[in-house]
Design goal:
Largest sheet: 8 strands, mixed
CATH topology: Dihydrofolate Reductase, subunit A
Oligomer: single chain
Structural class: alpha/beta
Strand content: 15-25%
Number of domains: 1
């Protein structure tokens, strides 16, 4: 378990998972196989916490079910994503999302600022938000999908200060599109 922020009981924490897509132009490389995998992953999530930039990017999926160009995998993912409880760290724009007034530790409770996660993981999305959670050692697993393209730049997902975190490789998978999935558990 991660170190517990002052005031939170150890058993009130859920598995916190940071999911990383390594490449800012990854969307064009996600094929049916990757979409099915990502859809299966999102089924395990009880609440998704998003940073501002990712939140704005993901707004499309709130109405994606009305997009006739979606394939079956995308439609299925959108159907799971839309009702999923979400929290963000910026002003509201989505009726189904709740603002997190204080970024952690308050966001890590089972009932978080109106977000009531079901029986599932806390997913953390967005580089800045993930780096803040990592700096506070609140992440239990890192799940990365590495896409076979170099784009350079971007916001680091990991804290900029000295912070060594030992990881245990739990799972790997290589997709036919050459996307590689890596799942690491934080060694405690």
């Amino acid at each position: 378990m991660p170190p517990v922020p002052r005031g939170l009981p150890r058993d009130s924490l859920l598995l916190a998972v940071a999911t990383i897509a390594v490449s800012s132009s990854a969307a064009g490389l996600a094929d049916e196989e990757v979409y099915r995998f990502v859809t299966d992953e999102i089924r395990e999530v009880g609440v998704h916490l998003l940073g501002r930039r990712l939140y704005e990017t993901m707004l499309y999926w709130e109405t994606a079910d009305q997009d006739p160009s979606l394939n079956d995998s995308m439609f299925e993912w959108a159907a799971i994503w839309k009702p999923l409880p979400k929290g963000w760290c910026s002003p509201p724009r989505c009726r189904r999302c709740r603002a997190i007034p204080a970024w952690p530790p308050a966001a890590w409770r089972r009932r978080s600022s109106g977000c009531e996660p079901g029986e599932g993981d806390i997913a953390i999305g967005g580089a800045t938000l993930a780096a803040e959670a990592a700096a506070l050692r609140l992440i239990d697993e890192y799940r990365a999908r590495v896409y076979p393209v170099l784009v350079g730049g971007g916001i680091p997902f990991f804290p900029q200060r000295e912070c060594r975190v030992d990881l245990e490789l739990v799972e790997t998978r290589t997709f036919s599109s050459r996307v590689v999935y890596l799942r690491y558990r934080v060694a405690r």
